[in-house]
């Protein structure tokens, strides 16, 4: 006798539906967790076309000019929307759009990784956006049963910074650093 799934066929058969639901669940959970842990009112949503365009037009000045990313948020968001296992989050505070994060879950669902990350240069939050983004990624990894969370292709000037945030594992291909990673802590730890 063959067991039948109790899940609706649309959910069971369509990974896009399953991962969209996972993203919404993680966004709700992370909003509560991060708001409590960081002492800010944070809202986390999918990246809208408007948020991608706003981030694309962020202005960098002074010493922050070298922090200008080498990608277009509208282009990357459109490209990532084709992936079912994407990680996509727009973070908002009382001041408005705080930052964006794009990434994905590996094919074997072992690694949850950030591929694109940017903070609004006009926001004056004293809390580092990367702290919120990495905690969000850790929560996402737990929700999808990944054992590792990572930042892919970190900028060479930021490697030590990410290591100071706990991403001490290195995956290299020859001399090239592919990602910095950390192991997901068990829920009981």
Record the SSE blueprint.
Elements (H helix, E strand, L loop, with lengths): L8 H5 L1 H24 L4 E3 L3 H8 L16 H8 L5 E8 L2 E10 L5 E9 L9 H15 L4 E5 L6 H6 L4 E5 L2 E8 L6
Parallel strand pairs: 4-5
Antiparallel strand pairs: 1-2, 2-3, 3-4, 5-7, 6-7
Task: Describe what you observe in this structure.
This protein is α+β, with helices and mostly antiparallel strands. Helices cover 35% and strands 25% of the residues. It is built from 6 helices and 7 strands, in the order ααβααβββαβαββ. Strands 1-2-3-4-5-7-6 form a 7-stranded mixed β-sheet, with helices on both faces. α2 (15-38) crosses α5. The protein is globular, with a radius of gyration of 17 Å.
Task: Write a concise synopsis of the structure shown.
This protein is α+β, with helices and mostly antiparallel strands and 189 residues long. It has helices at 9-13, 15-38, 49-56, 73-80, 129-143, 159-164, and strands at 43-45, 86-93, 96-105, 111-119, 148-152, 169-173, 176-183. It has a single domain, classed as Aminopeptidase, CATH 3.40.630.
Keywords for this entry:
alpha+beta, 189 residues, globular, Aminopeptidase, seven-stranded mixed sheet, 7 strands
Percent range for helical residues? 25-40%
| Unreliable sequence segments | none
Radius of gyration: 17 Å
Instruction: Specify the number of helices.
Output: 6
What is the top-level CATH class? Alpha Beta
């Amino acid at each position: 006798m063959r067991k039948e799934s109790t899940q609706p066929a649309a959910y069971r058969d369509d990974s896009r539906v399953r991962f969209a639901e996972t993203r919404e669940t993680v966004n709700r959970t992370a909003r509560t967790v991060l708001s409590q842990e960081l002492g800010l009112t944070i809202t986390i949503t999918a990246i809208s076309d408007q948020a991608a365009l706003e981030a694309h037009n962020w202005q960098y000045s002074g010493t922050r000019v070298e922090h200008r990313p080498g990608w277009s948020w509208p282009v990357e968001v459109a490209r990532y929307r084709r992936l079912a296992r994407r990680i996509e989050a727009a973070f908002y505070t009382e001041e408005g759009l705080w930052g964006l994060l794009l990434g994905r879950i590996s094919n074997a669902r072992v690694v949850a990784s950030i591929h694109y990350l940017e903070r609004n240069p006009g926001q004056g939050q004293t809390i580092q956006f990367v702290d919120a983004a990495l905690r969000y990624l850790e929560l996402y990894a737990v929700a999808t049963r990944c054992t590792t969370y990572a930042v892919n292709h970190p900028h060479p000037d930021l490697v030590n910074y990410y290591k100071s945030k706990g991403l001490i594992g290195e995956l290299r291909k020859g001399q090239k650093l592919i990602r910095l990673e950390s192991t997901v802590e068990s829920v009981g730890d």
